[in-house]
Amino acid sequence: MAMSITHRATGIALVFGVLLLSWLLIAAMLGQNAYQHSISLIHTSPGYVFLFGWRLSLYYHLINGIRHLLWDTGCRFEVKDVTGKGIAVNGIIIGSLTLLLTAATWYAWIRQ
Q1: Alpha-carbon torsion 75, 77, 80, 82, what sign?
Q2: pTM, whole model, 2 decimals?
Q3: What is the pLDDT of residues 2-57, one digit of tens each?
Q4: Using an 8 Å Cβ cutoff, are 62 and 14 in contact?
Q5: Left, alpha or beta for 74 (phi > 0: left; psi -120 to 50: alpha)?
């Protein structure tokens, strides 16, 4: 149940990322000054925290969505896999992959 709730929560967080992306695209259409102002707001500490959280949400939602797709095919949908230790293992795998992908993306972005 916790993984389902976090899947929904990350879906809501992704909406805010899409709003940010829309804001950037509108600013780019309005001209260079508006776009530079938008970029300067993103390159602040709160902006970095937001982008990190958004990427974390994106990867968690993606990986957990793949798990849901596998369940739709009947794969790993036995009682022992869905309760108790199965949830812990899924949580550890999904959490680890989420953190790994987020860290890799963040590292690649910072190195630019």
Answers
A1: positive
A2: 0.79
A3: 777 888 899 999 999 999 999 999 999 999 999 999 999 989 999 999 999 999 99
A4: no
A5: left
**CB proximity list for 76: less than 8 A, separation 6 or greater:** 67, 70, 86
The C-alpha atoms of residue 96 and residue 102 are separated, in whole angstroms, by 10
Cβ contacts of 112 within 8 Å, gap of 6 or more: none
Residue carrying structure tokens 């869905």: 82
What are the tokens at 5? Answer: 């709730």
Q: How far apart are CA 67 and CA 96, in angstroms?
A: 14
Torsion sign over Cα 54, 58, 60, 64? positive
